[in-house]
Design a protein that fits this description.
globular, 252 residues, 12 helices, mainly alpha
Length: 252
Amino acid sequence: MTIFLAGFWAGMINVVVGSGTLVTFPVLLLFGYAPLTANISNNIGLVAGGLSGTWGYRKELAPNKEMIKRLLPASAIGGLAGALLLLTLPPSAFGTIVPVLIVLGILMVAFGPVLQRRMALRRFTGEDPGPSRSAVGLIVGIFVLGMYGGYFGAAQGILIVGLMGIMTTVALQQINAVKNVLTTAVNGIAAVTFMIVAWHYIDWKVTALIAAGSLFGGLVGAKFGRKLPPMALRATIIVVGTAALVKMVFFA
C-alpha cells in the first residue's frame, strides 16, 4: 500500500510540477530495493502516470502540436541515451550535478516572466539572434534534459518548464502540458530500453504498484493543476523544487 500511495503522489506531482521520482525512489530504497532496481522499476511504473496526465492536459496541448513534433524526437533520443548511460556509468556519476540542475530549473521558473519580456524586447528591437537559432538551442536543451531524464529523471519536469519558459513565449499552462508529453516520452523510451537490455533488474510487483498509483495520480494532478493560475503554478513549482533540493542535499 505504501508503494502504491507513493506512486499516486509521484504521479500527481509529476503532472503538476515534476520531480515525482524524489517521492518514489527514496521509498523503494527504504524498503530495501537495490538502487538500480529501484530506479528502473520506478521509471517504468511512472509511465502510466505520464500517460494519464497527458490525457488530462489534452486541451492545453492543442495549440502547440507543431512544437511537440519538433521537440519530441529530441526527448526520445535523449531518453534512450540516458537509459544506456544508466546501465554503463556508476550510479554516482550524475550525483553532484543533480542539485545544480534543480537550482537552475527553479531560477528559470522564478525569473521566466522577466526573461520572456527581455527576449520579446530583443526581438522587437532586432537584437535577437533569430528564431532559428533559438529553436536549435531549445531542441539541444530538450535533448540534454531527455538524456538526464532517461538516466534518473528527478526534477526533469521542472527543468523543462524553466527552459521553455525562457526560450519560448508559450503560456505556462501550455508549457506544462508540453512538458508532460516530453517527460512521458523520455520515460517510455527508457522503459522499453530497460525491458530489452535490463529485464533482470526490473521488479514487476513494484512496477505494477507504482503504475497503478501514478495512473490515478496523473488524472488527479491534471484536474488540479489545470485550475491553478500561472502565479500559483509557478509558486508551486518553486516550492516543490526547493523541497526536492533540500531533500537531496541534506537528507539523501
